[in-house]
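Lab channel / #folding
Pinned by the channel admin:
"Please post every new chain as: sequence first, then the structure tokens as a reply. Keep commentary short and put observations after the output so the thread stays searchable."

First post following the new format, from NK:
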Amino acid sequence: MMQLQTGGKKILRQFVLRLCSCKQSIALAILALAWMPIPAQQKQERTVLTISWADSHATPIKFSLVALEKLEHKKLVMELPPNFGLSGKHEWSGVPLRSVLAAAKATHFSTLRVVALDGYQVSIPAEDLVRYDPLLAYQRDGQYIAIRDRGPLFLVYPFDQYPELQKVLFMNRTIWQASTIILQ
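Reply from TO:
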């Protein structure tokens, strides 16, 4: 698909706004604007992860993709279990979950409740951070993970490194579209 230059984006926006002058075209205009690409700078500056404490009124810590990329970086090349629908080996790049929590100065918790964009939640015991070092991935095979591809953050365990992770228990702790971590 050909990328629009800045001038082309302006023309498209003007066209869409003119369509809006007709009441019947409002829905079409909204749909067209929703599909317009977001500039890379805006994508990276928006909050992609919020960390908060279940029993505290402390201000939640928010991370943009840029902030996460400044933390410790790690890559895992592995194949996810078949029930995830991503066949073959993939290179997952991101930040170890323990590093994100360290950057948030998160201590004294026993469980992490990880919440996805759609509200789905998983509970992860703190021991998993030390034992398995799960990865909060923001890239798969060198490409940022789009929301439609289960991103922007996909929490994965190193399934190929530890045979015991092949159990349903650990598969259920893997969560895509992770957006919030609540420490308990």
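NK: Residues 41-183 form a domain with the Sulfite Oxidase; Chain A, domain 2 fold (CATH 3.90.420.10).
TO: also worth noting, The longest helix spans residues 6-20.
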